[in-house]
Amino acid sequence: MEVKNPMMENRILYVRLPCNPIFPIGVVYLSDHVHKQFPQIEQRIFDLGTVPPLDYTFALDRCVDEFQPTLLVFSWRDIQIYAPVGGRGGNPLQNAFEFYYAKNPLVKLRGALGGLRIFIAYYVELWRNLGLIKRGLKRAQKYNSDARAVVGGGAVSVFYEQLGKSLPQETIISVGEGETLLEKLLSNRDFRDERCYIVGESQPRQRLIHEQPTPLEKTACDYDYIENIWPEFNYYLQDRDFYIGVQTKRGCPHNCCYCVYTVVEGKQVRINPAEEVVAEMRQLYKRGIRNFWFTDAQFIPARKFIDDAVELLQKIVDSGMTDIHWAAYIRADNLTPQLCELMVKTGMNYFEIGITSGSQELVRKMRMGYNLRTVLQNCRDLKAAGFQDLVSVNYSFNVIDERPETIRQTIAYHRELERIFGADKVEPAIFFIGLQPHTHLEEYAFKEGILKPGYNPMSLMPWTAKKLLWNPEPLGSFFGEVCLQAWQQNPNDFGREVMKILEEKLGCADLEAALSAPIITKDKQLASVL
Fold it and tell me: How far apart are CA 45 and CA 231, in angstroms?
């Protein structure tokens, strides 16, 4: 191959590493921002999520050969695999529970074999993605010896310390959002004050992920430009049921003990101007999109942002997009009757509530900062406003200080949600928390001796995985048996079956008990630990 002049103009290739077919809003927003700051720079988006697995290396080689980038920006979305859904050739949660808790040797063996398949797939995927990064960079350097790589995305933001040991020298590892980092890099300014570090040159700063992101004024994404630099763009427009991501804000002000969003995005909530959000939606609307997912950590993160949500929804009403639907994660404690009416009027047809527990006592201990009584009242307001669609309620059992009484309280709370929306409209999503680095729960695990500093959070070895899939004794085996029974009895409606079995075994508390959280000395001690 002919090596071209190393002083050639910057050419940026964004490579979205393989993952589930989720709209790659990160690289879309990055490339849009760079174009607005440096309109002369040539860019291309290459999405391996649209490429068959057997063609990954060939397709990457071909793209690099055609475009000859001077800078490769890799987006790596997923690494951790604990979830109650299928993936990587099986259901990770089910396999783990069969292996750890099944009494039938054949079921335990099935879990072990399923876990082995996931174990192999996990490491193959890890090595494959690292290999794609190295391959893409090496091939680009054949055309330009100064070509370099930036690696970021959700997976990198969480596991940036571990991944740095496996990436090529001089790779820039980006934590969180990367717009201002790229802006400084392309302007030949010092970018080391951004949330990043360079492999082989420096070690990541202590608590790097906890540093606040650089504020950024977000404008509507220019989809005419994006369509021009992204040949696979129409892949996501073919299925009219597909939800396209639109971001209305960044940041989450809360301290939920297990959640890493608040450190990745920062605690400062930065609102995107409502008129810019609507202008972005209208561009997609003209391309036939009718389903939107607001990709914020929380659509209404706190009561102080209610007016911003009202403004946005009213502008959607005024825009004339009357046949759209949208969905989001929502803190239902921040709804008002006005908001509920606007949500229904603008076409919200699905939302998720991550309440984690139906016990106010445990909600407090997990630092989640909301009132379950308020959530119920706001759900009643939403129903009164005419909401008739699906609600997904996320429950993470066996969190800190779970016991039979708090389980009964969660059941009582869930039954009340069913009375409000209808049992067929409330879908319980049963999670067991995957412990992640940089969270309060990790600090609690260190304090309690469950984990030791220096452990590898990316390890899938059974002795590590059992600790990271948070389901400690004395209730761990009990929940394991309940979940195994639910998978056996009704695998297609796992969440509802779990709630049914729990109620059969433990009963249902009085709703008022679920909504009350007496403060006792033990709470104060635990709060000081977390």
Answer: 8
